[in-house]
From TrEMBL:
Secretion signal, residue range per the UniProt entry: none
Key word Protein biosynthesis present: no
The protein's name: Ribosomal RNA small subunit methyltransferase G
Domain of life: Bacteria
Subcellular location: Cytoplasm
Keyword Methyltransferase: yes
Role, per record: Specifically methylates the N7 position of a guanine in 16S rRNA.
Length: 295
């Protein structure tokens, strides 16, 4: 349904303080254990090398920004970074070459959008993949109630393990496509997505999961304005409106994160939901698949 979160490849209470870090006091990740620039490209090679990876702390050049966006939960964000750079790489959810950029390109870039969420909002992250932005938002904003929706079993297994490891009691993991889980996770205040799919497709998947008056917040790139112009009419036909670009992290990161906001102004039929009910029911009926436990 959605595109992968990393390249073209495929956190509640109780924060444990990580053990002493062994990486040198260098501002560059290139000098840290397991982060050679010529990282292995195969998952087999990655599985041999990740034991020495250490990204528990952000690099010096973005340490102040990371501390500002994560606050007292910075150590918890570091635990997630470590899981992405180790288990995430081994399982093929994160490209090995992304490891040096875990903090700036992925964690901080997602965390700055937390400023757009009202207190206590219910959030659905569609196509959560490796947990971006869903897990990052759960870490930065424990007041949010977040549901991660992901159709692939290997990804939902990883997400469930991360939720347990980080003790995130504000997160639920649901396996399924967006159009298959409407009865479980609909009426959200905010729906998020971080993918390379066109904006009209994202709106078709995400708006049905939002309440009327709720919003889709889609992390996008330089093409955001062009996409709004191209897909505005199609999005309005399916109940979206008020399309606007929000720049997050201004004064903190350069360039700021670009988020497209779409307000759900009325109900409309889910674009791809027709005929999905039987498939969804069959999936959840076998092997305990579907919604996993909280926290």
């Amino acid at each position: 349904m959605t595109d992968p979160r990393f390249g073209a490849g495929d956190l509640g209470p109780g924060v444990a303080t990580p053990g002493p870090s062994s990486f040198p006091a260098s501002s560059s990740y290139a000098a840290r254990p397991g982060l050679a620039q010529n990282a292995p490209s195969s998952s087999a090679a990655a599985s041999r090398d990740v034991s020495s990876v250490d990204v528990l702390r952000p690099p010096a050049e973005i340490a102040a920004v990371a501390a500002e966006v994560f606050g007292e939960r910075l150590a918890l964000a570091g635990e997630f970074a470590q899981l992405l750079a180790t288990e995430g790489v081994v399982r093929g959810l994160v490209g090995p070459r992304e490891t040096p950029r875990i903090w700036d390109r992925h964690l901080v870039n997602c965390a700055v959008m937390a400023e757009l969420f009202p207190n206590g909002a219910s959030v659905v992250d569609v196509g959560s993949g490796a947990g971006l932005p869903g897990i990052v938002l759960a870490v930065a904003r424990p007041d949010l109630g977040i549901t991660l929706v992901e159709p692939l079993a290997r990804r939902t297994a990883f997400l469930s393990e991360v939720v347990d490891e980080l003790r995130l009691d504000n997160v639920t993991v649901v396996r399924g496509r967006a159009e298959e889980v409407l009865g479980e996770v609909g009426e959200a205040d905010v729906v998020t997505a971080r993918a390379v799919a066109a904006l009209d497709k994202l709106a078709g998947w995400c708006l049905p999961l939002a309440r009327v008056g709720g919003r889709l917040l889609a992390l996008k790139g330089a093409s955001a304005e062009e996409e709004i112009q191209e897909h505005r009419a199609a999005i309005e036909r399916i109940g979206g409106g008020g399309l606007e670009i929000r720049l997050c992290g201004v004064g903190l990161i350069e360039p700021p994160a670009t988020v497209v906001e779409v307000v759900k102004v009325r109900d409309a039929a889910a674009g791809r939901a027709a005929g999905s009910g039987k498939r969804s029911a069959a999936r959840r009926a076998g092997g305990g698949r579907g919604k996993t436990r909280r926290g």
